[in-house]
């Protein structure tokens, strides 16, 4: 019989989390084959907010936060609560009291496909929260759900222990087993982009690949250029 609560699972290591936290979510998504970014509806409450850590996954029914309370009781310091709230915005699933407890517990942040409330107070406590928005309605605490299972959050599969990196652009999830292989690719991309930006600032604004891409797309004829 499958349990609804999985307490023990392998997490992406703290060392890999630290290294990954150096990169923007966009960089990691690019080197991950332009995949792993949650739907843009899930955004930081404030642009300065950032998160990096392993996912502690939670599935709830819309408008009910019973299992989030349970997940908080099971969380380890550094975990990121990643909550499948079904994209519901009719009631907030978390507010000041729960976020204060999360911060006290050492939870790294919250990513929730649902709504929160008390956004000004969360801003003041400087606890990173990514959600689909806010709603003043409170939740119920009656309906069972699951913890530590694979969930769908923002249209992306998130498994317990996967890497979460979130910033002003949105939320990236990386499969735990792939994180280490992504890091050197991310470093190289940062270096390549820095080189390109430096060239642009010196006046080299043309994209060397553009004409060929336009020919392949049929916009330009062979031998033709912009």
UniProtKB/TrEMBL annotation:
Q: Where does Mg(2+) bind?
A: 118
Q: Which domain of life is it from?
A: Bacteria
UniProt xrefs under Gene3D superfamilies? Ribonuclease E inhibitor RraA/RraA-like
Q: Which InterPro entries match?
A: RraA/RraA-like, RraA/RraA-like_sf
Residues annotated as binding substrate are 95-98, 117
Keywords (alphabetical) are: Magnesium, Metal-binding
Q: Which cofactor does it need?
A: a divalent metal cation; Mg(2+)
For molecular function, the Gene Ontology terms on record are: metal ion binding
One Pfam family from the record: RraA-like
**TM segments?**
none
Matching PANTHER family: 4-HYDROXY-4-METHYL-2-OXOGLUTARATE ALDOLASE 3-RELATED
Name the UniProt record assigns to this protein: Putative 4-hydroxy-4-methyl-2-oxoglutarate aldolase
Name the source organism: Ramlibacter monticola
């Amino acid at each position: 019989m499958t349990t609804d609560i999985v307490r023990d699972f392998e997490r992406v290591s703290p060392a890999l989390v630290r290294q990954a936290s150096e990169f923007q979510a966009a960089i990691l998504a690019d080197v991950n084959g332009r995949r792993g970014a949650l739907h843009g509806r899930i955004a930081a409450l404030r642009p300065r907010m950032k998160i990096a850590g392993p996912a502690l996954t939670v599935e709830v029914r819309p408008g009910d936060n019973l299992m989030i309370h349970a997940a908080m009781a099971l969380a380890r310091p550094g975990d990121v609560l990643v909550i499948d709230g079904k994209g519901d915005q009719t009631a907030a699933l978390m507010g000041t009291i729960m976020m204060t407890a999360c911060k006290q517990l050492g939870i790294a942040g919250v990513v929730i496909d649902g709504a929160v409330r008390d956004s000004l107070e969360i801003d003041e406590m400087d606890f990173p929260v990514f959600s689909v928005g806010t709603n003043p309605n409170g939740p119920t605490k009656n309906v069972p759900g699951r913890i530590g299972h694979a969930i769908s959050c923002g249209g992306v599969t998130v498994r317990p222990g996967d890497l979460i990196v979130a910033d002003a652009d949105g939320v990236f999830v990386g499969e735990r087993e792939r994180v280490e292989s992504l890091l050197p690719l991310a470093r190289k991309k940062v270096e390549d982009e820095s080189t390109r930006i430096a060239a642009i600032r010196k006046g080299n604004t043309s994209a060397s690949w553009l004409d060929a891409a336009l020919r392949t797309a049929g916009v330009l004829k062979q031998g033709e250029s912009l």
